[in-house]
Amino acid sequence: MSQPGPHRLIGVEIARGIAASCVVLYHCARHLNADHATPWLMSFWQFGHAGVDLFFVISGFIITYVHHDDIGSPHRLGRYIARRFQRIYPLYWIATAATLFLELAAGHGLPSISHVLNSLSLQPFAGEPILGVAWTLQYEVTFYIVFGLAIWNRNLGFVLGVIWLALIGTVAVAGPLPFVPPLLTSAFSLQFLFGVLAAVWLRRSPATIPPWLWHAGLAGVAIAAFAEDMGWMNGYAEPARLAYGIPSGLIILGAALRSARANTKATPLLTALGSASYSIYLFQFVFIGIAWQAWTHIVPKGLAPDWAAFVVLGIAGIVGGCVVSRTCEYPLLGWIRTHMNADRRRPGMPVA
Questions:
Q1: Residues 96 and 130 sit within 8 Å (Cβ to Cβ)
Q2: Of 102, 139, 253, 314, which sits 20 to 30 A from 163 (CA to CA)?
């Protein structure tokens, strides 16, 4: 079987859209539970935060799949850095600015200059960013740095990867290490590895991938989600990163394989969600907040059922992100790449 081209990985794109939507619905349920005490809604959508686990696996997969041949080729490092910067930072800065504007409009004070600069840099050791969900981007940037060093020098990247895994394993067994930032030793970082392994397997030996991995992955995530919703598993604890991360790796590998074999049926809705997943993720709180203010001013408390408010908030968070993606994200990305003489993204190229 020939290797699937990046433009054919529609299944991975769909998975990314579903992951972003699950995170949005999880935050909507949390918001309503905090204001209206809706534990039944929160308990059902408790698992939704696992969309982050799926995101990390997808990132490891896409970066490795697209840049696999760049490893050990230092002359390609500049292009890699440019593409990662262009894809992550400009839209993130806009989302951070929108968040600051809404906080000022709500009567909150401005954060310190150092907090703003640290947030905008996304440096892994800068503390919690202004945009709450951006903590995941700090993990992303850390992975990008390690992968970039592997492009610069294959052996160096391998050694750093082994050291990183050793740190994670040491902390898991012996507890926190002094002078080592928790971000470097979290089990979240393992999920990038699951994606890396899936991409290597798909590129090097796709014919050996069992077709049932897709179903096994879905079953594994469903079991973990059910266990968390029932209170049998702490979904925020380190072991949950394995419970969600490993089957997520199987899902992505299976989705990529199905895409390569033209077995993935993509509806316009799922395709749109996948393309807009980054905007949905970054701007969810902006649109959830706006929708909540409108809802509370228009609909008196107790007049409408809580599930109706949940639907409104969920639609606002997801549709708002899709609008930002169409009107800002991709036009901005195209403009940046044109004016910075970067390579234009080929149609359908997956973006981590």
A1: yes
A2: 253
Question: Six-digit token pair at 286?
Answer: 């902006």
Distance CA 104, CA 98 (A): 10
Range with the largest mean pLDDT of 7-16, 182-191, 228-237? 228-237
Q: CA 85, 87, 93: angle at the middle one, nearest 5?
A: 80
Both ends of the chain: CA-CA distance in Å? 25
The closest alpha carbon to 239, from 31, 96, 53, 33, belongs to 53
Contact (Cβ atoms closer than 8 angstroms) between residue 292 and residue 31:
yes
Beta carbons within 8 Å of 194's beta carbon, 6+ residues apart: 57, 60, 245, 246, 248, 249
Residue 247 Cα to chain centre, angstroms: 16
Half-sphere exposure of 210 (CA within 13 A, CB side): 7
What are residue 45's phi and psi, to 5 degrees?
-95, 15
DSSP string, 169-209: HHHHHH-PPTTS-HHHHSTHHHHHHHHHHHHHHHHH-GGGS
User: How buried is residue 234: exposed, middle or buried, by Cβ count under 10 Å (0-12/13-18/19+)?
Assistant: exposed
**pTM for this entry:** 0.90
